[in-house]
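quick q for whoever's on today - can somebody do inverse folding on this one?? i tried earlier but teh output was garbage lol. tokens:
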């Protein structure tokens, strides 16, 4: 008995030392990755609780006080919402704390980059406390999450547009034949994949012998957007490139597919009618991976952008025109030191991205509005999911076309 107690104490001490080593190893450069890791861990916890939390949740009196006991699936998805709410409050609190941080001398800069043991403990305590909240608060958060998830998807669209235009400008900027050929090859691949993908959508989601007018409308609208992208881009008045148009065409087709595959499994026009379990697992995995990658990219983009996400007073957001009173060499050295002390991205916006992503991940795991209902174990299935995906594709198309025509309509503004 004494030996077992000593062994347990040694294991606990080693675990604590390992945690302290990992936490102390998080430097300023890896802080953003650490936040991404914490967010990914919260998704894993949510996923596990969704599958195994029902037997425990049923025994909690302040949760299970219904006149009629709900389905077991309700308790799993309710656990997901409570973890998501804790995640949302954690990152939102950090976001409010970081408002106005412009210099590394600000004491809040050390809070953003350090104190990881304390922040991890706070995250755990907040998540645990969420399981003591009444159902009404969780239901309110579920409703609010629908709007926050839409905003998260909109942010991802803006980042995608910025990434695609930047990718095109970078390869064109090399001004070498190899990179022009590379752009042509990638463009050709994207267009071939787009039209082949749309053909498969017609085959699976608009089969002959069924009245599938809605699905046909979605697919045809996607094809109209594809042709509009090409026509607007190639117009002589537009200073655009066909490469971004091809990438956005493929992305809009993917969004159309993800919307169609989210249709209820009993809908006769759903081509995966007899493969609901496999599609559900694949949709869940792809959705979680996409969410994590989107947040990681948002974090990296927020940290590297010189104009889009930089604080207004950041040295990267503009250049000064005043004259220095110091000698030239000392002035340059002084300016370097001062610039090094400024933060290069908005800490507040950085944490807001995670807050919105917490809402989106909750909606993904609960089917957007199916925490109670007939969806059972299916993930991201239902008409709400369909319209969210389709609307995101249309918003992407509208923003891309606007990015092309805005310089013509508003010539006095810089885009």
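ok took a stab at it. sequence:
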């Amino acid at each position: 008995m004494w030996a077992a107690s000593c062994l347990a104490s040694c294991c606990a001490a080693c675990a604590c030392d390992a945690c302290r080593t990992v936490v102390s190893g998080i430097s300023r450069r890896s802080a953003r990755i650490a936040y991404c890791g914490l967010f990914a861990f919260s998704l894993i916890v949510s996923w596990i609780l969704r599958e195994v939390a029902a037997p425990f949740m049923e025994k909690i009196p302040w949760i299970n006080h219904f006149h009629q006991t709900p389905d077991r699936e309700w308790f799993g998805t309710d656990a997901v919402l409570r973890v998501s709410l804790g995640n949302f409050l954690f990152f939102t609190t950090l976001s409010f704390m970081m408002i106005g941080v412009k210099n590394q001398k600000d004491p809040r800069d050390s809070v953003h980059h350090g104190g990881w043991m304390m922040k991890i403990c706070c995250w755990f305590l907040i998540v645990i406390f969420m399981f003591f909240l009444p159902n009404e608060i969780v239901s309110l958060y579920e409703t609010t999450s629908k709007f926050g998830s839409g905003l998260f998807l909109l942010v991802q669209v803006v980042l995608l547009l910025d990434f695609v235009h930047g990718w095109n400008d970078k390869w064109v900027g090399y001004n070498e034949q190899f990179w022009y050929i590379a752009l042509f090859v990638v463009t050709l691949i994207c267009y071939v994949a787009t039209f082949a993908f749309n053909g498969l959508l017609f085959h699976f989601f608009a089969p002959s012998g069924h009245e599938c007018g809605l699905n046909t409308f979605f697919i045809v609208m996607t094809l109209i957007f594809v042709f509009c992208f090409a026509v607007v881009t190639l117009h002589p008045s537009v200073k655009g490139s066909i490469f971004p148009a091809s990438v956005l065409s493929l992305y809009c087709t993917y969004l159309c597919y993800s919307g169609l595959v989210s249709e209820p499994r009993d809908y006769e026009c759903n081509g995966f009618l007899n493969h609901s379990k496999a599609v559900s697992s694949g949709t869940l995995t792809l959705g979680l991976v996409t969410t994590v990658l989107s947040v990681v990219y948002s974090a990296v983009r927020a940290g590297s952008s010189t104009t889009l996400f930089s604080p207004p007073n950041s040295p990267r957001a503009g250049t000064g025109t005043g004259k220095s009173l110091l000698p030239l060499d000392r002035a340059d050295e002084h300016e370097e030191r001062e610039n090094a002390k400024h933060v290069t991205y908005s800490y507040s916006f950085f944490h807001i991205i995670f807050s919105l992503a917490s809402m989106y991940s909750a909606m993904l795991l609960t089917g957007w509005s199916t925490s109670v209902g007939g969806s059972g174990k299916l993930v991201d299935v239902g008409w709400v999911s369909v319209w969210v995906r389709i609307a995101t594709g249309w918003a992407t198309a509208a923003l891309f076309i606007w990015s092309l025509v805005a310089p013509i309509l508003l010539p006095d503004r810089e885009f």
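fwiw The longest helix spans residues 135-173. also The CA atoms of residues 53 and 76 lie 5 Å apart. so keep that in mind when u check it
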